[in-house]
Specification:
Distance between the termini: 28 Å
Structural class: alpha+beta
Shape: globular
CATH topology of one domain: Helicase, Ruva Protein, domain 3
CATH class of one domain: Mainly Alpha
Number of helices: 16
CATH superfamily of one domain: Bacterial muramidase
Strand order of the largest sheet: 4-6-7-3-5
Largest sheet: 5 strands, antiparallel
Length: 343
């Protein structure tokens, strides 16, 4: 799930936009010794041999690598670091500006019937599908502009996470072999994330759905496949449509920070007994739900009580900021409630 075409979005948001692997990539600091690298063309030749030995059709391999190139921009983006410290208070307005909320609500209304059909089948509230779509690629407008094979080959060659990117590369070749997309249209982010939901190739193979039954899992152009693939990912990872994501809360002054984090779960009543309250100071809901206290910045910043669905969003992208941005946008889609379709 992503870095996306960086030329049409603010520099700050670009660096914190999401894919399943982006947050992991930006945390890596080690670099390979450039002087010890073999030439890129020789590395590509070795990859082709290995791919064929792994059973991928030789013609597919040769065609896929015919126009492969080293993408210096991918290396630069992978090594980029934030220019200053973010907080949720500075991140959320950039990730979820008012114009994006308006577009999200319009998209929800436009695709109302399809979204609700898919939401019912997979057990995922449609507002979360739209929120993911909006945060990931601005509703399909910013899906990347790099040839996937070049992106993944470049990332493997630079050596910081070679095994991971070789796995993604061979998965990408499998996607081509299965005929879901033509080589000329196999475009995505600098890190190899693809389509309107920015799946990495292994995520595509595990979660992408051919919802309309045309024989292709088209997460690039087919709305039905895009929405169903996102819903399938969430449901497979444990989504519960009987719950929401969580809520912003207030902590008591004597709250023990060691109780915070997704590994620490308590019932809402147990958190209530420890002095946790809704953001307006009122009592927590009287519901049988387990939750975790999440403190993305520090106790002076925004603090949340995160339910299971929030943790599922963290599977999609291991970033509190990402999960919170999706959750926040889903709330803005939902209020005021949209009940009619224009389809």
């Amino acid at each position: 799930m992503k870095l996306i075409d960086a030329t049409h979005i603010p520099k700050l948001f670009k660096r914190f936009s999401l894919t399943l692997l982006t947050s992991l990539l930006l945390t890596q600091t080690a670099t390979a010794d450039e002087s010890q690298k073999i030439p890129f063309a020789e590395y590509v030749a070795q990859l082709k041999i290995e791919a064929k030995e792994n059973g991928i059709n030789a013609a597919i391999v040769d065609n896929a690598f015919a126009n492969v190139e080293f993408l210096q921009r991918s290396v630069k983006a992978d090594k980029a670091q934030p220019e200053f410290k973010l907080t949720l208070d500075t991140y959320i307005p950039r990730a979820v500006p008012d114009w994006k909320i308006g577009q999200a609500r319009a998209a929800y209304k436009k695709h109302y019937s399809l979204l609700h059909k898919i939401g019912k089948e997979y057990g995922v509230q449609p507002r979360f599908i739209v929120a993911l779509w909006g945060i990931e690629t601005n509703f399909g407008k910013l899906t990347g502009r790099h040839y996937i094979i070049s992106s993944l080959t470049t990332m493997a060659y630079q050596g910081r996470r070679e095994a991971l990117f070789k796995k993604q590369l061979f998965a990408a070749l499998t996607i081509l072999e299965q005929g879901h997309i033509k080589t000329d249209n196999f475009i995505g982010s600098w890190a190899g994330a693809m389509g309107q939901v920015q799946f990495m190739p292994t995520s595509y193979l595990n979660y992408a759905v051919d919802y309309d039954g045309d024989g292709k899992k088209d997460i690039w152009n087919n709305y039905a496949d895009v929405f169903a693939s996102a819903a399938n990912y969430l449901k497979t990872e444990g989504w519960n449509d009987q719950e929401t994501w969580g809520r912003q809360i207030l902590l008591p002054a004597d709250f023990d920070n060691q109780l915070a984090g997704l590994k620490h779960k308590k019932t809402l009543q147990q958190w209530q007994d420890l002095g946790v309250r809704r953001f307006d100071g009122s009592a927590l809901p009287n519901a049988d739900i387990n939750a975790s206290v999440v403190i993305p910045d520090d106790k002076s910043g925004r603090i949340y009580l995160a339910y299971n669905n929030y943790q599922v969003l963290m599977h999609w992208n291991r970033s509190y900021y990402f999960a919170t941005a999706v959750s926040y946008l889903s709330e803005r889609i939902n209020h005021p409630r949209i009940t009619a379709s224009t389809e």
